[in-house]
Design a protein that fits this description.
The structure holds two protein chains of two kinds.
Chain A lengths: L9 H21 L5 H14 L3 E4 L2 E4 L3 H8 L3 H16 L7 H23 L6 H28 L3 H11 L1 H21 L18 H4 L1
Antiparallel strand pairs in A: 1-2
Helix pairs in contact in A: 1-4, 1-5, 2-3, 2-4, 3-5, 3-6, 4-5, 5-6, 6-7, 6-8
Chain B lengths: L12 H25 L7 E7 L2 E9 L2 E2 L4 E5 L5 E6 L5 E5 L7 E6 L5 E6 L7 H5 L4 H17 L4 H8 L4 H28 L5 H32 L1
Antiparallel strand pairs in B: 1-2, 2-3, 2-6, 4-5, 4-7, 7-8
Helix pairs in contact in B: 1-6
The chains are: A mainly alpha, B alpha+beta.
Chain lengths: ~220, ~240
């Protein structure tokens, strides 16, 4: 999922970086002081999750967890994933500083999109709907990110068909795992701390407000 | 986690939040430490070293997951492609030594946008002239005379004289010795190169990274309380 340095053409990198700057601006504006602890934890989780490997054929894939971040945090996914990728780049040599913008966009944009689209479902009080939303919210962003990675490679010139298939197949087990992980996360949070997911449930309390994110 | 329901929600919220942060971080450190002992990482590495008149490479995601069938290319510093081949099941591939004395840049393409580079400096390889000696007629002549002179003047060691008497020229002996030594030294060179350049993240990097998050968390909280205070004093 992380595109390495020295592979992409400059226009693709610049485009990704520009889109990430926009995402970061919106994300930071939506981030309230109540959200900071959650954002930090999710960022740290994202940072560590990439170390958990799923061997697939000749290559290997790892957990991304952008779906979890998107479902819980919405637009704030951009700064969260940006920080995680920055430290992965500096400490683990995953990705790199020149590809930071592009990689952030590839992982955060699907997270935001799916997270916001599924919010009504996550907040639904009907039994079974929220976990289903969690399942979709976990897997879909991984799939869409793989598509974006494939697209970035294609725009640079590598054979799109082959690489797209490689990336998507490579991340398929990750997709399944994360769908299940996020499904249980949503189920758990809904039961224990529903205000994390639903701003309406948090009325009157200072914690867990998501109004800024969903607006 | 068990007490989540029973704790008075508003009063204990702050304490609960802090506790959860600590718990999650603790769990992450433990799990990451466990995972990292299995050397789980996500990045590609390539290393190259000289083995006699060959140059061998090793490419891997982690020490336990080699790059299978990845395309390894050798470029000269000015970007000219010198050679390329695919890795075997152990992630290794060897090339015959390109006939240049410049640095060599090795790169591996492992699919899905995974790529790594390694520069083998020319001073880390045995000089070409030494390797070329048996094949190249000119250095042969130079090398021959001191060698034969040495053998003639020194009160012959039995083995040396035996060999020359048996028709083996010193050049052939040199070639055999060289092959023998490179076979012995090859694995050692590999070990040295790998241990020198190993960049797979360990517990130190992971814990260090988590520390950064704690720091950034504190800093952003400080920023937000500062802006809150400003708002309060204004109103």
């Amino acid at each position: 999922m992380h595109i390495s340095e020295g592979l992409m053409s400059a226009p693709v990198l610049a485009g990704g970086a520009a889109l990430t700057v926009i995402g970061l601006t919106i994300g930071l504006k939506s981030l309230r002081s109540e959200d900071i602890p959650r954002a930090s934890i999710l960022s740290a989780v994202f940072f560590v999750a990439s170390l958990i490997h799923v061997p697939v054929g000749p290559s290997s894939a790892h957990l991304v967890l952008n779906g979890l971040i998107g479902t819980i945090m919405g637009w704030a996914s951009f700064p969260i994933i940006f920080m995680g990728l920055l430290l992965q780049g500096l400490l683990f040599n995953f990705g790199g500083l020149t590809t930071l913008g592009l990689n952030t966009f590839n992982m955060a944009a699907p997270a935001v999109l799916v997270g916001i689209a599924l919010r009504p479902l996550v907040n639904s009080s009907m039994i079974g709907i929220a976990p289903l939303a969690g399942f979709l919210g976990g897997g879909l962003p991984v799939f869409l990110s793989a598509v974006l990675v494939a697209l970035s490679l294609y725009l640079t010139g590598e054979q799109f068909k082959l690489v797209a298939v490689q990336v998507i197949i490579g991340n398929f087990p990750v997709m399944i795992i994360e769908s299940i992980v996020v499904m249980f996360c949503i189920k758990f949070l809904k039961k224990v701390r529903p205000e994390i997911l639903d701003p309406r449930a948090a009325k009157g309390s200072s914690d867990g407000a998501l109004e800024g994110v969903s607006a | 986690m068990i007490n989540l329901h029973s704790i008075a929600p508003i009063r204990a919220k702050a304490r609960l939040g802090a506790l959860m942060i600590l718990l999650v971080l603790f769990a992450m450190v433990i799990s990451s430490a466990l995972f990292s002992t299995a050397a789980l990482a996500h990045s590609v590495f390539i290393f190259a070293w000289g083995e006699g008149d060959r140059i061998c490479t090793d490419s891997y995601f982690t020490r336990k997951s080699p790059v299978r069938g990845g395309q390894v290319s050798i470029h000269s510093p000015d970007g000219q492609l010198l050679d390329s081949a695919a890795t075997d099941d152990q992630g290794g591939v060897c090339f015959s030594r390109p006939n240049t004395s410049t640095d060599l840049i090795f790169s591996v393409e492992a699919g899905q946008g995974h790529r790594a580079e390694f520069t083998l400096r020319s001073e880390d390889l045995p000089p070409l002239t030494l390797l070329g000696a048996p094949l190249d007629p000119e250095p042969v002549g130079q090398a021959k005379s001191p060698a034969t002179a040495g053998i003639a003047s020194v009160p012959a060691e039995p083995t040396a004289t035996d060999l020359t008497e048996s028709g083996l020229s010193p050049l052939v002996i040199r070639k055999i010795v060289r092959e023998e030594i490179s076979a012995q030294i090859g694995p050692l060179m590999k070990m040295l190169t790998l241990s020198e350049g190993d960049k797979t993240p360990g517990v130190r990097e992971i814990v260090g990274g988590l520390g950064w998050f704690v720091g950034i968390f504190g800093f952003s909280f400080w920023l937000s309380t500062r802006s809150n205070r400003k708002r309060k004093t204004r109103s």
